[in-house]
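stage 2 :: seqdesign
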C-alpha cells in the first residue's frame, strides 16, 4: 500500500470546484468531438438529434476564437478607401472569426432537450440569427462603397451586441454554473484515480469503447444501453478477470455505432493475461452475453503504441509519464463537456465505481 502518488504532487488547489482549468494541450487532446446530427428513432417514431463524429473539430476551433472576440474591445470591421471604391476590411481577429464561421457547421439545432450547449455557443447562435450574419457574409467579397459601409456596421453591431451580453452578470453566472459541473466531474475523477493509486503501487489500466454494430444500433434505446453497461460492470465486479479496483465511464452517442460507453477500468495486475487480452475478454463478454450479439468494442490497449496513448497497461503510482497518460484520459472523459453535455432526465453521462 502506498501513501502518496504522482497525482498528489500536481494538484495543490488547481482542481478546485469553482476553478475552471482546460489547458491548450488538453483542448488538442480531446479528439473525439461530436456535433449534432439526426437519426430516426424507431421506438419514438420521429427524427431525433444525435451526435456525429464526422463533424469533428468545429466547436473546438470555434470556442477559443469566440472567447478572444468577446474578451477584446477591438473594432473588427471597417472600410478602406473612399467613395464607391471603399472596400470591406477585417482585422486579424475579425478574419479568424470569419474563417471559423465559414468553415464550420452552422446548421445544427441549438435548443433540444437531449443536449445542453456551452452558453458561449447559445449566445453566438442567437446573434447569428438576429443579424442574419451567415447570409450577409456571402456579400462581403463583392461589396463596395455604401454596401461595404453597411456591412461593416452590421458586423460590428453583431460583435458589440455579443460583447455586451457576455459581460453581463447573468451571462457570467450561466457560464460559471455550466462549467462548475465540468470541473466537479474532473476533480472527482482525479480524486478517485488518485485514491486507487494511493492504495496500490501497481495498477492494470484498461480502456475500452463499448457500442453497437451499425445494423443493430438504432434498435438500442438509451435505457437499454444503460442497462447493458450496468450488467457488464456487475460481471466485472464479481471478479471475472480478477480483483477489480475501480472503474469510470462516459456515456454518449457515437453516430452509426449508437449509444456508446467509454470505460476506464483499474485492476490488480494479472499474471496470466496481458492487458490486451483482458480488454478482448471484456469486449467478447459485451458482444455476446451482455448485448445478445449486437455489441461491438474498440480495444484502446491494443492500439496504445501506435496511437501514442500513455497510461494504459501496468502503471506504477510514481510513474510520471504513465500517470500523465491517465490524467489525459480523465480530461477526455470529463472536459469534453465544456462544449456540450448530454442532458436527458434520469440519464447520467458520467459515472464511476465505489472504492
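stage 2 :: out
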Amino acid at each position: 500500500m502506498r501513501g502518496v502518488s504522482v497525482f498528489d504532487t500536481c494538484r495543490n488547489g488547481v482542481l478546485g470546484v469553482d476553478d475552471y482549468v482546460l489547458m491548450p494541450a488538453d483542448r488538442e487532446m480531446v479528439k473525439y468531438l461530436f456535433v449534432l446530427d439526426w437519426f430516426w428513432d424507431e421506438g419514438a417514431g420521429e427524427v431525433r438529434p444525435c451526435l456525429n463524429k464526422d463533424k469533428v473539430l468545429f466547436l473546438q476551433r470555434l470556442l477559443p476564437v469566440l472567447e478572444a472576440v468577446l474578451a477584446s474591445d477591438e473594432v473588427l470591421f471597417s472600410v478602406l478607401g473612399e467613395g464607391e471604391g471603399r472596400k470591406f476590411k477585417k482585422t486579424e481577429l475579425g478574419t479568424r472569426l470569419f474563417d471559423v464561421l465559414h468553415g464550420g457547421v452552422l446548421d445544427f439545432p441549438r435548443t433540444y432537450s437531449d443536449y445542453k450547449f456551452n452558453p458561449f455557443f447559445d449566445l453566438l447562435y442567437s446573434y447569428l440569427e438576429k443579424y442574419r450574419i451567415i447570409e450577409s457574409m456571402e456579400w462581403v467579397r463583392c461589396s463596395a462603397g455604401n454596401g461595404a459601409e453597411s456591412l461593416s456596421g452590421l458586423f460590428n453591431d453583431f460583435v458589440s451586441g455579443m460583447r455586451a451580453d457576455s459581460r453581463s452578470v447573468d451571462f457570467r453566472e450561466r457560464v460559471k454554473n455550466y462549467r462548475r459541473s465540468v470541473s466537479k466531474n474532473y476533480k472527482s475523477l482525479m480524486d478517485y484515480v488518485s485514491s486507487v493509486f494511493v492504495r496500490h503501487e501497481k495498477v492494470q489500466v484498461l480502456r475500452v469503447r463499448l457500442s453497437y454494430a451499425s445494423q443493430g444500433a438504432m434498435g438500442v434505446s438509451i435505457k437499454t444501453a444503460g442497462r447493458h453497461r450496468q450488467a457488464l460492470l456487475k460481471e466485472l465486479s464479481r471478479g471475472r478477470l480478477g480483483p477489480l479496483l475501480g472503474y469510470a465511464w462516459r456515456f454518449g452517442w457515437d453516430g452509426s455505432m449508437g449509444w456508446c460507453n467509454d470505460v476506464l477500468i483499474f485492476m490488480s495486475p494479472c499474471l496470466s493475461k496481458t492487458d490486451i487480452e483482458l480488454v478482448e475478454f471484456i469486449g467478447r463478454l459485451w458482444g455476446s452475453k451482455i448485448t445478445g450479439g449486437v455489441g461491438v468494442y474498440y480495444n484502446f490497449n491494443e492500439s496504445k503504441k501506435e496511437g501514442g496513448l500513455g497510461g494504459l497497461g501496468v502503471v506504477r503510482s510514481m510513474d510520471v509519464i504513465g500517470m500523465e497518460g491517465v490524467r489525459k484520459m480523465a480530461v477526455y472523459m470529463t472536459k469534453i463537456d465544456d462544449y456540450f453535455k448530454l442532458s436527458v432526465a434520469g440519464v447520467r453521462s458520467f459515472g464511476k465505481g465505489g472504492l
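stage 3 :: structure notes
- Residues 58-170 form one domain.
- The two ends are 14 Å apart (CA to CA).
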